[in-house]
Amino acid sequence: MPLIKFVEADGKETEAEVSVGGTVMQAAIDVGVAGIIAECGGSCACGTCHCYIDAPWREKLTPARDNEVGMLEFVIDPATESRLSCQLTVDESMDGMIVRVPDTQT
């Protein structure tokens, strides 16, 4: 199982072994990452699972689809590294990935 590191806004780090096929959002919820709220339950309808993906990992991810790109326009402090964790399906290439929670999600 891939190991993903979550870094909360206050710097707290939490690692999670995540099943292939699950989402980064669900992994964050399962290990209690503060700031990944996921109010819509993963429907790509709220932006409360907004996260930042470190540069080396962005190229390995499936590009954001139109619905995710549209939702990211409404998050606070969108950036090049912004993604919605509900739209990131875990695969083996994500082993070691770092996911950061924006300060605005606390």
From TrEMBL:
Report the residue ranges that make up the 2Fe-2S ferredoxin-type domain in this protein: 2-105
Please name one Pfam family that this protein belongs to: Fer2
- Does the keyword field hold Iron? yes
Question: Required cofactors, per record?
Answer: [2Fe-2S] cluster
Q: Which UniProt keywords apply?
A: 2Fe-2S, Iron, Iron-sulfur, Metal-binding
User: What biological-process GO terms show up in the record?
Assistant: P450-containing electron transport chain
Q: Which GO terms describe its molecular function?
A: 2 iron, 2 sulfur cluster binding; electron transfer activity; metal ion binding
Superkingdom of this protein's organism: Bacteria
Protein family per UniProt: Belongs to the adrenodoxin/putidaredoxin family.
Its protein name is Ferredoxin, 2Fe-2S
